[in-house]
Amino acid sequence: MKKRSKRYQERAKGVDAKKRYPLNEALAILKQFPKSKYDESVELNIQLGVDTAKAEENVRGTVQLPNGTGKAVKVLCICKGEEAKAAQTAGADYVGADEYISKIQEGWIDFDVLVAHPDMMRDLSKLGRVLGPKGLMPSPKAGTVSPDVAKAVKEIKKGKIEFKSDKTGGLHVICGKISFTENALRENAQSIYKTLLEQRPSSVKGAFIKTVSIATTQGPGLTLEVTSLAA
C-alpha cells in the first residue's frame, strides 16, 4: 500500500469517503486544507458511462475556463507572413515555421501547446511520431489548427484547455489553482460540466457522467453530487 504523507493524512481526516458532497461544500473543505509550499492545482476526476471499445464513444473536446487555469502556458505557433505577426501580437511565446520544425526534429520541445495554420500541416505531419505521443500534435478538433491563429493563441492564453477520455472512460481536467476563490473554482468546474454534457455521444445509454470527484494535487478526492455541478 502506498504510504501517504503526513499532510495528506491530515487532510483526509476531514473527508468522508462515503459521502457525495455538494460542489460548494467540497470547495469550502479544499480551501480549509493545511497549505502546501506551492500553489496546488485543483482537478476534476470524472468517470464516464461510455464503451471505450467504440470509437464514437471516445470523448474529446475543449473548454474555455472563465477564470483560466492559473498556469502560464507556453504557446508555439507555426505559421508564416501576416499570420506570424498576428500570432506575436496575440501573445504566442514562439512564432515561426521551418526553423521551429527543424528544432523539434532535433529534440526541442520547450512549449505546452502548438498552434498551427492549416497551410503548415503538411510540413508538421512528419513530426507526428515526436509530437503525437506527447499530446502536442495540433488538430482542428482541439482548436489548435486554425486559419485564425491569433484567435487560437488568445483563447489558449485565456484558459482554453483540451480534454480527452482515457482507455477506462476516465477524464482528468484541471479547473484552477487552490489560490483561486471558491467562486472562480466553481465557475470553472461548472463550465467543464456544461461543456462535457454537450459532448455526450448519441450512442451512450444510461448515465453519461457516472461519478465526479475533486481534489488538489496532494490531497484526497471528494466525491461530488453530480447535479451540484449544474450552473
Topology:
Layout: H1 6-12, H2 23-32, E1 41-48, E2 60-64, E3 75-78, H3 81-90, E4 94-96, H4 98-105, E5 113-116, H5 121-124, H6 128-131, H7 149-157, E6 160-164, E7 170-177, H8 182-198, E8 209-216, E9 222-223
Parallel strand pairs: 3-4, 3-5
Antiparallel strand pairs: 1-7, 1-8, 2-6, 8-9
Helix pairs in contact: 3-7
Radius of gyration: 19 Å
* Helix and strand composition category: alpha/beta
Q: How many angstroms separate the termini?
A: 38 Å
The low-confidence runs, each spanning 5 or more residues with pLDDT under 50, are none
Largest sheet: 4 strands, antiparallel
CATH T-level fold name of the largest domain: Ribulose 1,5 Bisphosphate Carboxylase/Oxygenase
Number of helices: 8
Total domain modules: 2
Indicate the CATH class of the largest domain.
Answer: Alpha Beta
The proportion of residues forming helix, as a percent range, comes to 25-40%
Relevant CATH superfamily of the largest domain: Ribosomal protein L1/L10, rRNA-binding domain
C-alpha geometry:
globular
Numbering strands along the chain, what is their spatial order in the largest sheet? 7-1-8-9
Named CATH architecture of the largest domain: 2-Layer Sandwich
What series of H and E elements makes up the topology? Answer: HHEEEHEHEHHHEEHEE
